[in-house]
Specification:
Layout lengths: L31 E3 L17 E3 L9 H8 L6 E3 L11 H5 L5 E3 L3 H9 L4 E6 L20 H10 L4 E4 H22 L7 E2 L4 H10 L13 H17 L6 E7 L4 H4 L7 H6 L9 E4 H10 L21 H4 L6 H15 L19 E7 L4 E8 L5 H8 L7 E5 L18 H17 L10 H11 L5 H7 L5
Parallel strand pairs: 5-6, 5-8, 7-12, 8-9, 11-12
Antiparallel strand pairs: 1-3, 2-4, 10-11
Length: 478
């Protein structure tokens, strides 16, 4: 079955291109209610939706997007009491729509303009999940890791610096593991279970439908947002760059990142520099948009030489890499939490934590952490969330730490990933295996051991959960 539309371009092997223009502001959030659906039709996507848009001229009004959003994602039909659009910005409808009527809001033209501007320094950061998916748009088998070629292509078109978000993932792990242990010790105003917070569509889902659970969200920013704030502070300082000249671009599998970068509190670098209008991340391009950007620059991806990341914010651990998979954030965080608890790296089972790996919608485990046992859970796909969250909110479940991803499979199944006719479960399996293969072959597999992470704490941040780290790397969801 085709899970999207192929749009052939005139150059190369590129198999997906659509174009539209820019966005809007974030909407307020209130308690949800279930509304009756009168008839099947296209999703009514608001004109101010910051992540996706609907081009009605392309729409066949089949109602498939509405049915998918309601029955698979369990979002359509559930609106706030004030009538707010219940969209979580996940972008799964952009993959499901077979006519290309629903797309992300494209920003690759603006990024192209920034690259051409002589007064701008463009810094692009690559998320883990794009490197095992972008190749699909050029005919590579699903799961092929094209990391080096992405870096080479970005440099070829004039991007000044290419950073690796696995560094940001390692930073997220350091702060998240420290926060988890603090919650376990203190409780009180920091309730358990602690939920991961690096998936913006999941955070939006909580705000819309389970606001009572907002205090349970970890306060750490997502890896790409951490990269953005450090690009305009730590990186700029080290490289002698005026932060005001930096255009920070997140290369991401996620449409919801387009909304996340606009949220209040995602301007910590600007606050530090006294320029509160400065966003930590200026643009978020989906995996598909990366291909559109390269195509608009007449890049032949096959001919791009592999290139390395730079020495600063360009190295991540295997733990940071598996952030792109459902269960990956949990496994990565537990590796470092074990280190914090016991003063030594975890035993071998933590490097293949099968109890949290896989594509089952819900996985539960009790993990021996040496000094204590943690009850954890991993769930992905918003359509699987309500019974699980109800049990937590009603006090019927007892977990310490929970990872949630809005999209099936996690970031590898993000709404901004390439459209393909391949069976979606097999597609996610191949992408997932590509990230685990990278982890298995990494010299560094615990975030704590990343020398660049040690350097950023030593030279700039201080310590996890320290005052500077809290100002720059944390946000509050209430």
């Amino acid at each position: 079955m085709m899970y999207g539309t192929a749009f052939l371009l005139s150059t190369g092997k590129l198999t997906g291109c659509r174009s539209l223009e820019v966005p809007a502001a974030q909407a307020p959030v209130q308690e949800p209610v279930r509304q009756a659906v009168s008839r099947s039709g296209p999703l009514q996507i608001r004109s101010d939706n910051p992540s996706i848009r609907h081009t009605y001229d392309n729409c066949g009004e089949c109602g498939g997007c509405q049915n998918f959003c309601q029955n698979t994602m369990d979002v359509f039909g559930r609106t706030t009491a004030g009538g707010e659009d219940a969209c979580t910005y996940c972008g799964q409808c952009t993959i499901f729509c077979t006519r290309g009527a629903i797309t992300e809001r494209f920003h690759y033209r603006q990024v192209s303009g920034a690259i051409a501007a002589s007064d701008k320094i463009v810094i692009a950061t690559t998320a883990p999940a794009i490197r095992v998916a972008l190749g699909e748009m050029y005919g590579y088998p699903a799961g092929t890791n094209v990391e080096g070629r992405i870096v080479g292509a970005m440099k070829h078109i004039g991007v000044d610096h290419v950073l690796d978000a696995t560094f940001g993932a390692d930073l997220t792990v350091m702060e998240e593991a420290a926060e988890l242990l603090k919650r376990l010790e203190n409780g009180g105003n920091n309730p358990l279970p602690m939920f991961t917070s690096c998936c913006p569509a999941w955070v939006r889902y909580v705000r819309l439908f389970y606001p009572r659970l907002l205090p349970n969200l970890s306060t750490v920013k997502s890896p790409l947002l951490m990269q953005g704030v450090l690009a305009k502070t730590y990186f700029a300082q080290k490289m002698g760059i005026d932060p005001a000249r930096i255009v920070s671009v997140a290369l991401t599998p996620c449409t919801a990142k387009k909304a996340e970068i606009l949220l209040a509190g995602m301007n910590s670098a600007g606050v530090k520099h006294g320029k509160t209008q400065m966003h930590d991340v200026d643009y978020a391009l989906t995996t598909r948009e990366i291909a559109y950007l390269l195509n608009s620059s007449n890049v032949n991806f096959d001919e791009m030489p592999d290139a390395p990341y730079g020495d600063l914010m360009g190295t991540g651990s295997g733990a940071g890499m598996i952030f792109g998979n459902t269960g990956g954030v949990m496994e990565a965080a537990l590796r470092t939490a074990y280190r914090f608890l016991n003063g030594r790296n975890p035993p071998a089972k933590f490097f293949n934590l099968t109890s949290v790996r896989g594509l089952e919608s819900l996985r539960r485990a009790s993990v021996d952490m040496g000094r204590r046992t943690l009850n954890v859970a991993v769930v992905h796909g918003t359509g699987n969330l309500r019974p699980f969250l109800d049990s937590i909110q009603n006090g019927a479940s007892n977990y310490d730490f929970v990872e949630v991803m809005a999209c099936a499979g996690g970031c590898i199944g993000g709404g901004g990933q390439p459209v393909t006719a391949m069976d979606p479960v097999e597609l996610k399996r191949l992408r997932k295996d590509g990230l685990y293969h990278h982890d298995n072959n990494s010299a560094i597999r615990v975030s704590y051991d990343n020398p660049q992470i040690k350097a950023v704490y030593r030279d700039f941040l201080g310590e996890p959960l320290g005052a500077k780290a809290k100002r720059l790397l944390h946000t509050y969801h209430i």
